[in-house]
């Protein structure tokens, strides 16, 4: 007797939530996974993605084939996740974020989204290469399923939060506390996502109807884009290319225009089985021909930048997109020039580009074409060839953006006696832990209230302080985040103190001046989410010190401080 598909998907969603919560607990508060970033990143990527593929593959693949494909994809995801943390460098892993980097997250998402429809379509037709309509239907169904399931989860949480606030109005805070706990939030989210995937799967007619409506609407934007791109290319012989290169982002703009042209072209072409109207047909053929000059301009702009400044991670990504765009341009141009009805070559180009995308992703997400490795090698060759002087060379790029490859390159430059003395000195400075970071911009720390910031607070070497006290607000280190600063006597000691409220973190950091005149982190305070009351009180000068709930303990000459169990505080209701 077979289980109900909903029960299977619900069980998978619940197991996924349990697995994600277990990873969260094992990596938080000094858990054992916090010391193994090479293990945590692959496990997290696999637990977040593979259960979704399993649920969308139910009913399409036989259980044995589904398990085999998921095992193969799990191996690929593990390789990407482990490489993402390895490239950071094991010497930095203990103090780096355990979470996978943006490159790994986006890369795994794209890799699976491209590979899974190819697998499902092939398995549904029981052949290695399926028909193009099968690829088209599977890819759009998967994309719309994920989109509407994500929307379902968002509305699910909106309702839960609304209900929690309604109960709070009558003094019942249990629901608000419950939905704020990770033990509930993570499994509830995965269960809701499973429900959304199931509902969108058992009603295929709804998905097909929404897809038809969406594709019809978007296809009528193709003529407008073709008109604008055609006018732009027609004006270039008269305006020249100098104004285009002066923008500094011509490659990105041209690649973006190419990507949008490819997307809208496919919304009009669809699966190739229907003949659109005359305007759409002419726009389709014109779009196929316009893609080649756009890609040629993007490749030329990228070549100029690489020739001037060498490779950087962004330029490596751009080169991958240029290669992929060239595949589309060649296939679409060939289809348009053949003058066959229906532009049959577009389907072949799309299938070829999908496989090429997988190859490019596999190269970029592994050491084979790691953007950091290629960039470090390029910049080093420019330095050694004398194309850039040591005074103008960006050694900080090697240390902070070159990851383990840049660190190894700096070590070679520092220790190689055949290298110029100035280069060796600058490489040693870049490697030195005592090298001060650039001072944060003044606008990163903004005083609030009547009292100004104490003299010397921003001028202090906060990097050295971070080595002694641990994590500090990023507004003091590199200015990536902004902080509001409140000056006052918050501990009752009669001396000015500084409270920093980080913009992107619900946390306060209290700084005090020690006997040597140095500012040190004395305490941190967690704030309830979306609660302006504490900050309003600080701005009004109404914050005050209160006695601790439990005293410190003197045991064996050590002063032991209490660590309270985690209990989220409630935001006070504003008085009317």
UniProtKB/TrEMBL annotation:
InterPro entries: DUF4153 (IPR025291). The chain crosses the membrane at residues 35-54, 66-82, 102-121, 142-164, 184-202, 214-238, 250-270, 282-304, 316-335, 342-365. The lineage of its organism: Bacteria, Pseudomonadati, Pseudomonadota, Betaproteobacteria, Neisseriales. The keyword Transmembrane applies. The keyword ATP-binding does not apply. Residues 430-449 are annotated as: Disordered. Keywords: Membrane, Transmembrane, Transmembrane helix. This is DUF4153 domain-containing protein. It comes from the Bacteria.
